[in-house]
Amino acid sequence: MRQTRYQTIAEGLRTEIESGAYAAGRLLPSEAELSERYAASRVTVRRALEVLRDEGLVDSRQGFGWFVAADPVRQSLARLGTIEAQLAQEGIGSERRVLDFRFVPAPPRVRQVLGCDTVLRVRRLNLADGEPFAVVTVWCPEEYGAELSRAAVERSPFYELMGVALGGATQTIGATAAAASEADLLGVPVGSPVLRCERITRATSGEPVLVSEHVFPAHLTEFVVDLPHAEASMAPSGLRLVD
Amino acid sequence: MRQTRYQTIAEGLRTEIESGAYAAGRLLPSEAELSERYAASRVTVRRALEVLRDEGLVDSRQGFGWFVAADPVRQSLARLGTIEAQLAQEGIGSERRVLDFRFVPAPPRVRQVLGCDTVLRVRRLNLADGEPFAVVTVWCPEEYGAELSRAAVERSPFYELMGVALGGATQTIGATAAAASEADLLGVPVGSPVLRCERITRATSGEPVLVSEHVFPAHLTEFVVDLPHAEASMAPSGLRLVD
DNA sequence: CTGGCGCACTTGTCCTATACTTGTATACTT
DNA sequence: AAGTATACAAGTATAGGACAAGTGCGCCAG
Questions:
Q1: Are B217 and B192 in contact (CB under 8 A)?
Q2: Could you report the per-residue pLDDT of A190-228, keeping only the tens digit for each?
């Protein structure tokens, strides 16, 4: 397959951009720099870039530079059903046991997210087939929590009890060593690895209405994420370094 | 990755504000002070601040200063791209060090997925700013691996080197205790919690073409999943019980 | 104690100058 | 036809100023 120099360069740049090495809006190296990198004249590099512009992949502004065009469709992470649904499907009985139900001063992290000082804290142990598999703590603004009863929380899922329509959520998954209290509840040794999931649930308005922490023993659980589209990188997406 | 100075500064300030370091209404350091801190001229700092004002994150009053807007738009956390992109964005140099590169008999799990007996196994250590943050093992069918060189693998991301177009992937996130070899490479104590991510990457045809395992020290990393739509349950989605 | 003044500091707006970028054109080589 | 080399125009980013205008605060005279 014979191809011109600028086609080759365009191809190289295309894969580089599609690989996600450059986020949307990011500047590409200047024509001069690319010219040097590809050992081609500026005119040739320019033709390559113009090809990519025709494809809608990049754009340019005089005196500014070439930049990656507005976001190519970002895949939403497909999600599997909830764990309760899975359990029910497999004929395993699930049970919720409320350990604690009280109004408390909001911990700093919760206050930062929800923006209120007093919150309802509900701590729950989830069991599958009689075996504990999750310790869940939910923090809920006082205004929503005021209408809830301990019995209601034990009987129904939390999301059914909220007085607002829930929109989306942001879920952060990390691993830590089990603290003594958690280890005790889950029946695992202290210090054994657990999956710790923080979830910020928002109303349709976007306002955060719930903060929850879910702790799972690592030997029992794992997260599965299906990424339907081509990925920018082989590295796990969604990962980030914490400070 | 190239970026204008004011974009960089705007980004830095944005994350600082969104992180909650500044309460609403709180004064930011003066332009002069920021100018000194970022070693940039006042004009540049100003442009960065103006970007944030356009975003509704901050506001200013002449003679008074810049302050965090009364209602800081609770933006959904911008979805994170790949970790390489994040690192590049923060100006942190990332490095890949190939530890092992050889053809081996496929382990049972890999054989089950890829359906071949001999595979190329590449073990890599990823570093951010000189600090190890991931041990990655990639298993690749012999037919695709035959064309690869150790140098190429060290230089380029794996997905660029595959001779086929990649379709989607399935990502499984779990936590385990660090094995001795991993702990050694990552510089963490043996038995400390690590995030273990298995990834099955498929070609556009749906045929699995890569199996990879990524091990991250838990204290450095976490996964963030943004779930834009209403959820059936407050429980973390994607979670499943392993057998 | 109070009102008013001035000082220090802030943002808002302008300027010049330099370096770098894309846009465009032309001449020349392979 | 494709690529190289060169030159110039026009736009942008940034540094480093200067100055106007607004704010907050302490000080001082009354």
A1: yes
A2: 888 888 888 888 776 667 888 888 888 877 776 665 554
Q: For residue A195, list chain B residues with Cβ-Cβ distance below 8 A.
A: 173-175
Contacts of A227 in chain B (CB under 8 A): 168-171
Nearest to A82 among B134, B197, B237 (CB): B237
From the list A39, A65, A29, A157, the residue with the least C-alpha distance to B2 is A29
Instruction: At B237, give phi and psi (nearest 5°).
Output: -85, 160
What is the CB neighbour count within 10 angstroms for residue B130? Answer: 8
Mutation for testing the A interface, residue in B47, B80, B82 having most A CBs under 10 Å = B82
Domains of chain B (ranges; CATH) run 5-68 (1.10.10.10), 73-224 (3.40.1410.10)
Q: What is the DSSP letter of A56?
A: T
Protein-contacted bases of chain C (C-beta within 7 A): 9-15, 20-26
pLDDT given at position A206: 66
Question: Is the separation of the CB atoms in B13 and B60 below 8 Å?
Answer: no
A176/B218 Cβ within 8 A: yes
User: What Cα–Cα distance (Å) separates residue B91 from each residue in B85, B94, B138?
Assistant: 10, 9, 27
Picking from B83, B89, B138, the nearest residue to A239 by CB comes out as B83
Within window 22-51 on A, which residues have Cβ closer than 7 Å to strand D? 39-44, 47
Tell me the C-alpha distance between A212 and A204, whole Å.
Answer: 18
Helix (H, G, I), strand (E, B), or coil: what is residue A140? strand
Question: How high is the pLDDT of residue B130?
Answer: 76
- Per-residue pLDDT, B82: 53
pLDDT digits (tens, 9 = 90+) for B57-87: 888 988 888 988 765 433 333 333 455 555 5
* pLDDT above 80: residue B114: yes
With beta carbons less than 8 A apart as the criterion, state whether A223 and B173 touch.
yes
Alpha helices in chain A (DSSP H): 5-18, 31-37, 42-54, 83-89, 108-114, 142-145, 150-155, 158-161, 180-186
Whether residues B199 and A86 touch (CB distance < 8 A) is answered with: no
Longest dimension (CA), chain A: 75
Both structure tokens of A221: 């659980």
Q: How far, in Å, is the CA of A33 from the C1' of nucleotide D16?
A: 28
Taking only the tens place, the pLDDT of each residue in A87-101 is 555 556 667 788 888
Q: What pLDDT sits at residue B81?
A: 46
pLDDT band at B230 (very low <50, low <70, confident <90, very high): very low
